[in-house]
Design goal:
The complex is a heterodimer of chains A (403) and B (215). Chain A has 403 residues and is an alpha/beta fold. Chain A has 10 helices and 18 strands. A 6-stranded mixed sheet of chain A has the order 5-6-7-3-8-9, with helices on both faces. In chain A, strands 10, 12, 14, 15, 17 and 18 form a 6-stranded mixed sheet that branches. By secondary structure, chain B is mainly alpha-helical. Chain B has one domain. Chain B starts with a helix and ends with a helix. The chains are: A alpha/beta (403), B mainly alpha (215).
């Protein structure tokens, strides 16, 4: 067991009036102190085995960073215990203690000391640090003259000189360019191979997926899930909807907005649109590559023969894809009363982001619009791959030496 | 500073003390050690919010290191003092052996005060201003500019309750006048500096856990 957290509680007191001086405190003795308590961590327990890499995910303000700070011993728990075995290195923020007036070399010394390196280790590692950071030309430049990217590289290169048993990482990878991020990943992979236990806080679900064996999910201070990374992240993505039942109501009846973004002669009305995920539940968050079903409910006031249902996907203002029942050869026959049609995609090939959806019903020759809902609906896609762009092609790479 | 005080006190107030220049100088150096050490120490935690909030290490290191900085600055001042002693041809006797011991007591006291005040200063930001006033008052309440003999015999013991008064009196006696301190005096100093240090550590230890939140 490398890290053991048991029934951890953390509450902050938020006083209504802040008393920071002795004088204010003396005057304040007359009045009772008023404050609200704010529970950040609510009975969190988990265990991390040696050599495991555990991701911690959750929305903003769910207590991820507080948890890490408590494990790092910077904040103390209100109740509960934290046990860490072995030497711990927190990467909570890079570049703590950097002095802008000192040179790069001197700062490596300063920062190395802050990170808990001995003088000998710093002396031994200093050239390696400079080389890794790519700052050979600047080793005697004052730190203030370096670009912020260089400073981050320098901090990271110094920090990885430590030889920890437990590593705490908080969003460090968010800074820096692609190249640098790649370097970070390589280093963390090396650490993993060496059997270092890693706690990794991130909003970037993809890097958590790539790295972590297990994932802890926090929601307003409570542990809602802990287990295999892929399962937890899947549940996280597909669960967001459940906690916000109001979203769906809004998107189904938005009378105020519908006036402008909705038109047609209402011969057939679209009464609702549902996005259905692979588990058959209604949802607005999907993972790339998963199947999606879009169900369009309608109500027809009189019999209409062969109406055409259409659907268009937008990403911001980019028109991504559009099709209709007629294009796909589906015959709607005669329509009367209530019913629905399903748009099914086996693999969602759109890549990460928010997609707006237009649905419409028109007459068979497209001359009359019965009902047009212009971008009234939307869903989100989470992309676990590293592909870029709007959509992906079903593709692979191969090569040959003789040309 | 020294010159002004020297002229004012030796001419106007007619203080009759042998080697008054050195008497004054050693008193001021020792008092400066206290005031510099504690006023630097008091803001040692508040002055480094990033270190306290971002990495963990035993926080008393911050206080101890600033106190040691003050110690080294005072050492340099003593180099100047030795030069003055040579100029005025004052040679210390064997009693100088007491010097390091008493000096360490003063350092322990400074450390104790700094620890407790720096911790309190995190929660009550005006502690440092209050302490500045206390120091100012202490400067005149302690026999630095004047000898203890200006007080009537029966109130001297009250003045000597102040450990700093004792530190300065003993160190003057043993460096300038070759007088060994009374054992009771040394014991009193040892006890009081130990108590100050322990109370300081106790307060610091109690307040330390919430530093990162309150800073």
């Amino acid at each position: 067991m490398a890290v053991q957290v048991e029934h951890l509680w953390k509450t902050f007191q938020i006083p209504h009036e802040r008393r920071t001086t002795l004088f204010e405190n003396l005057v304040g003795l007359m009045k009772p102190k008023q404050y609200e308590t704010f529970t950040v961590l609510n009975d969190v327990s988990f265990e991390v085995e040696k050599g495991e890499c555990v991701g911690i995910i959750g929305d903003n303000g769910s207590g991820k960073s507080t948890l890490l700070k408590i494990v790092a011993n910077i904040l103390r728990p209100s109740r509960g215990t934290v046990k860490v075995k072995g030497k711990m290195t927190p990467f909570l923020e890079l570049g703590v203690g950097f002095q802008p007036e000192l040179t790069v070399r001197e700062n490596i010394g300063v920062y190395g000391t802050v990170m808990g390196l001995s003088r000998k280790e710093i002396k031994r590692g200093i050239d390696e640090v400079i080389e890794f950071a790519g700052l050979e030309k600047f080793e005697d430049t004052k730190l203030k003259n370096l670009s912020s990217g260089m400073q981050v590289r320098l901090a990271f290169s110094t920090a990885i000189q430590t030889d920890p048993d437990v590593l705490l990482v908080d969003e460090v990878l968010a800074v820096g360019d692609m190249d640098f991020q790649q370097k970070c990943f390589e280093v963390f992979n090396r650490y993993r191979k060496e059997g270092v236990t890693i706690l990794f806080v991130s909003h970037d679900l993809n890097s958590v997926r790539r790295f972590c064996d297990k994932t802890l999910m926090l929601e307003s201070g409570q542990r809602t899930d802990f287990g295999d990374t892929n399962e937890v992240i899947d549940r996280y993505i597909y669960k967001i909807e459940k906690n916000k039942p109001n979203d769906k109501d809004i998107s189904e009846n938005e009378p105020a907005q519908e006036k402008k973004s909705r038109w047609g002669n209402n011969k057939i009305e679209i009464t609702g649109v549902k996005f259905i995920d692979k588990n058959g539940n209604e949802n607005s968050n999907f993972a790339f590559g998963d199947p999606i079903t879009i169900r369009i409910f309608y109500e027809s006031h009189e019999e209409v023969s062969h109406p055409v249902f259409g659907i268009v996907f937008y990403n911001q203002d980019t028109y991504c894809y559009g099709t209709t029942t007629e294009f796909k050869g589906y015959d709607t026959r005669a329509v009367c009363g209530r019913g629905y049609v399903d748009f099914k995609a086996k693999r969602l090939q759109l890549i990460g982001g928010k997609f707006d959806v237009t649905v419409a019903i028109a007459s068979s020759d497209y001359s009359t619009t019965y009902d047009w809902h212009d971008r009234l609906y939307s869903f989100n896609i989470h992309n676990p791959t590293r592909d870029l762009g709007l959509f992906s092609l079903d593709c692979s790479w191969s090569g040959s030496k003789d040309a | 500073m020294l010159l002004v005080l020297y002229f004012v006190f030796s001419n106007l107030m007619r203080v009759q003390v042998e080697h008054y220049q050195l008497f004054l100088l050693i008193g001021i150096i020792l008092w400066n050690f206290l005031s510099r050490g504690t006023s630097m120490g008091i803001s040692s935690i508040m002055g480094k919010p990033s270190l306290v909030q971002k990495v963990y290490f035993p926080r008393d290191i911050l206080v101890i290191s600033t106190c040691i900085t003050a110690l080294m600055m005072t050492m340099l001042e003593f180099v100047v003092f030795i030069i003055f002693m040579m100029i005025f041809r004052v040679l210390p006797g064997w009693t100088i052996a007491y010097f390091p011991i008493i000096f360490m007591f003063e350092f322990a006291m400074i450390l104790g005060i700094s620890l407790s005040l720096s911790a309190l200063n995190v929660y009550f930001r005006d502690v440092q201003f209050i302490w500045a006033v206390v120091l100012q008052a202490g400067f005149f309440a302690t026999p630095i500019l004047y000898p203890i003999t200006i007080f009537p015999e029966n109130v001297r013991w009250i003045v000597m309750l102040n450990p700093m008064a004792r530190v300065i009196a003993i160190l003057r006696d043993c460096t300038l006048y070759r007088i060994a301190p009374e054992p009771m005096s040394v014991v009193y100093l040892a006890m009081s500096s130990l108590v100050v240090l322990l109370i300081g550590y106790f307060i610091f230890d109690r307040l330390e856990p919430r530093f990162a939140e309150a800073i």
